[in-house]
């Protein structure tokens, strides 16, 4: 190697080290945009936008959503708009995160607890058989309607790494999850807004978050451009990520990756 190339390589290595050091120590704010339900067109588009900015999307799927028999209640989740596990495995293969969003999108707090636990088990079993490289100990279960009880949280946490439920249920001190994440199974709180377009809500929540001293904000979103409950518009999402990747204190990651990176 000549001297010039040696210097170039040394500079690159130095820059890499500095960047890595910065990432691990200086990020005070973490944002997860947690997309639910599995709208085929919207999820491919969302993944493409996240790719554009070197980010991984957080995609949460209903196990039986790919079946024609899926009961399309509520009206926000018409079966014909949903993708299947070929789609989800393809997107996972491209570096996006695919997590569990229920067996059949029932509100588990509105049925006998034994039935709710069976419903959870069916979902875990389905994902273990149909999602490539599924690892329950690194997975997140996202409750439908962000509705759960401490008993259902605890039951699911016997299987998965974390559950995502309503922020109003588990975040007693405010809106944000802590970045001091324990190695043991944990319960995470999120927030969302619908049924109409939620661009303005998301913008307001993120700006308010960035003005604080930090934490982990999980915002629950769904489809794009009219698909699903509280949709975002494609142009807004694209512009939002374009702005946010420039915020040096901010990490934008899917839930499972936050758990891997920030567990103390
Ligand atoms: Zn949902």
Characterization of the model:
The protein is an alpha/beta fold and 264 residues long. The chain has a single domain, classed as TIM Barrel, CATH 3.20.20.370. It contains nine helices and eight strands. It has helices spanning 3-26, 40-52, 85-93, 113-130, 150-156, 167-170, 199-210, 234-244, 255-262; strands at residues 29-37, 58-61, 97-100, 140-142, 162-166, 186-190, 215-221, 250-252. α2 packs parallel to α8. It is globular. Zinc ion (ZN) binds next to β1.
Question: What's the short story on this structure?
Answer:
This protein is an alpha/beta fold and 264 residues long. It is built from nine helices and eight strands.
Secondary structure elements and their pairing?
Layout: H1 3-26, E1 29-37, H2 40-52, E2 58-61, H3 85-93, E3 97-100, H4 113-130, E4 140-142, H5 150-156, E5 162-166, H6 167-170, E6 186-190, H7 199-210, E7 215-221, H8 234-244, E8 250-252, H9 255-262
Parallel strand pairs: 1-2, 1-7, 1-8, 2-3, 4-5, 5-6
This protein binds zinc ion.
CATH topology: TIM Barrel
State the fourth-level CATH superfamily.
Answer: Glycoside hydrolase/deacetylase
Strand % is 15-25%
Q: How would you state the average pLDDT, rounded? A: 91
Say what oligomer this is: single chain
Order of helices and strands: HEHEHEHEHEHEHEHEH
Bound molecules: zinc ion
Helix content: 40-55%
Query: What is the top-level CATH class?
Result: Alpha Beta
Taken from the alpha-carbon principal axes, the silhouette is globular
**Secondary structure: number of strands:** 8
Main beta-sheet strand count, sense and barrel state: 5 strands, parallel
Gyration radius from CA atoms, angstroms: 19 Å
Unreliable spans: 1-23
Q: Termini, distance in Å?
A: 41 Å
Helix count, per DSSP? Answer: 9
Q: How many domain regions?
A: 1
Q: Structural class from helices and strands? A: alpha/beta
């Amino acid at each position: 190697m000549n001297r010039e190339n040696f210097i170039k390589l040394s500079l690159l290595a130095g820059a890499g080290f500095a960047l890595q050091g910065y990432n691990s120590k200086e990020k005070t704010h973490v944002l997860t945009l947690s997309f639910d339900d599995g709208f085929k067109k919207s999820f491919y588009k969302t993944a493409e936008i996240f790719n554009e900015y070197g980010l991984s999307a957080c995609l949460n799927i209903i196990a039986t959503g790919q079946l024609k028999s899926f009961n399309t209640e509520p009206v926000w989740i018409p079966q014909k708009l949903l993708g299947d596990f070929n789609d989800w495995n393809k997107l996972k293969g491209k570096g996006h995160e695919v997590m569990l969003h229920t067996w059949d999108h029932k509100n588990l707090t509105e049925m006998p607890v034994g039935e709710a636990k069976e419903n959870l088990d069916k979902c875990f079993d389905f994902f273990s058989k149909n999602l490539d490289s599924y690892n329950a100990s690194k997975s997140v279960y996202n409750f439908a309607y962000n509705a759960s009880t401490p008993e259902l949280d605890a039951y699911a946490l016997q299987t998965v790494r974390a559950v995502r439920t309503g922020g109003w249920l588990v975040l007693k001190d405010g809106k944000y999850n802590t970045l001091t994440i324990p190695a043991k199974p944990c319960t995470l709180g999120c927030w969302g807004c619908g049924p109409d377009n939620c661009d303005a809500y998301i913008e307001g929540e993120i700006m308010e978050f960035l003005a604080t001293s930090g934490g982990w904000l999980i915002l629950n979103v769904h489809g794009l451009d009219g698909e699903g409950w509280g949709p975002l518009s494609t142009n807004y999402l694209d512009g939002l990520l374009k702005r946010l990747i420039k915020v040096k204190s901010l990490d934008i990651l899917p839930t499972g990756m936050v758990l891997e990176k920030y567990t103390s």
